[in-house]
Every structure is written in structure tokens, then in C-alpha cells.
Amino acid sequence: DVKVTQSSRYLVKRTGEKVFLECVQDMDHENMFWYRQDPGLGLRLIYFSYDVKMKEKGDIPEGYSVSREKKERFSLILESASTNQTSMYLCASRNREGRYEQYFGPGTRLTVT
Amino acid sequence: QKEVEQNSGPLSVPEGAIASLNCTYSDRGSQSFFWYRQYSGKSPELIMFIYSNGDKEDGRFTAQLNKASQYVSLLIRDSQPSDSATYLCAVNNGYSSASKIIFGSGTRLSIRP
Asked: Taking CA atoms, which of A31, A110, B18, B21 is between 20 and 30 Å from B95?
């Protein structure tokens, strides 16, 4: 079974803090993704990575950066957290081959106060 | 026009009946189609995927794909209260590692006892 884990289920941070969200997958997947999900707005892609050290902007990259130094790990960084970044953050991974089934981690509920 | 469209619901179905969830997509080049189930406060869980026209059955779930009509559906037979969730339709728009999955906004399903 594919296993995608995220460093925290719940996180509370203050405005202006630098926030790190970590995601680890154990299936040797090349592709990894970060989404945020908000009521009424659905899933929105922030960044994705094809492979180690490679990254591409998604639909809403402003205010975020990412790091992929190892294949199994994909980090999302909020450089200076703001209240409008309060959201559910979801990491996902998939194999580059085959039919591209994508698997999600459990999510991190981030609250910025 | 949204790339992947779903009726937001809520769709209310009596226990034991068949629940029918529908999805249309706009990109004729789409190759892979997925259904995710998401319980409130949890992350999306992949429950079905389909690549070829026709039906694919897995237990109580049947996915149906009609590429000519750009239509994919999910049938849930013998609906149970535990099937109450939001169902996300997702479409992968190509075969390369750069292809992305586009998610619909989800249909909320409620199974009434």
C-alpha cells in the first residue's frame, strides 16, 4: 500500500512566522504535489515536483516555496505566514509511469492567527 | 467552463439504493479518470480509476466512462450510511510526467437510513 505521511495533523502559527510542512512517501514515487483545500474553492495546486530538485508552480504559488532534496520528501514553506493561508494542506504523490494514480497524505490543518 | 464539472449536491439517497454520481470533463485528450472519496475533515481517498470506455466494477462500486460524451460516472450499489461523503472526480490530461490531475469540486452524498 502507498503511504504518504505529513509531519503534523494540526498546526497553529502566528502571522509572520516561517512555517515548514513536510511530506514523506514510501513508494519511490517521482512526482509529488502540494494542494490546499478551502470550503467552496475545492483543491488548488500550489506546487509540484517531477523529481528530486525539480519543481513547478501550480495555480496558487504566491506566498509559498518548496524544497525537494530527496526523492521521498517534499517540503512546503510559508515564508511569512498570513491569516489567508489558514487552510487544509494536502500532500500527494504518484508514480511517473503507469496510469498516474495519485495518493494523498492525511493533511495538515494550519491555522494562522 | 470548468475543466471538470460535478453537481455539488447534496445528493440524498435512501439506504440500500443505488447512488449515481456524474462528472463531465472538457479536455478530449484526457486519458485517466479517478474517483476519490473524502470524509469531512479527512483527505481524499482513491476508490476507483478507469482508463477505457465502458464499465469497471469493484465491489459495490462501478465506474463508467464514455469518452465520446466526455462523461464519467460512479455508481454505488446497496448504499450504506458509511458512504456519506464528498466524492471528487479527477481527470489526468495526458501521458507525460508533466501531466496533471484536474479535480472537480465534488458531490456531497448523503445516505439516509
From this structure: B21
CB A6 within 8 A of CB A95: no
Which ranges of chain A have pLDDT less than 50? Answer: none
CB-CB under 8 Å, B43 with A106 = yes
Write out the E strands in B9-84: 11-14, 19-25, 32-38, 45-50, 54-58, 61-66, 71-76
Q: Are B81 and B49 in contact (CB under 8 A)?
A: no
d(C-alpha B88, C-alpha A2), whole Å: 19
How far is B46 from B55, CA to CA, in rounded Å? 17
Long-range contacts of A43-49 (CB under 8 A, 24+ apart): A43/A90, A43/B44, A43/B88, A43/B103, A45/B100, A46/A76, A47/A76, A48/B100, A49/A74
Inter-chain touch A42–B106, beta carbons under 8 Å: yes
Q: A44 to chain B: nearest residue by CA?
A: B103
- Band (pLDDT 50/70/90 cuts) for residue B90 is very high
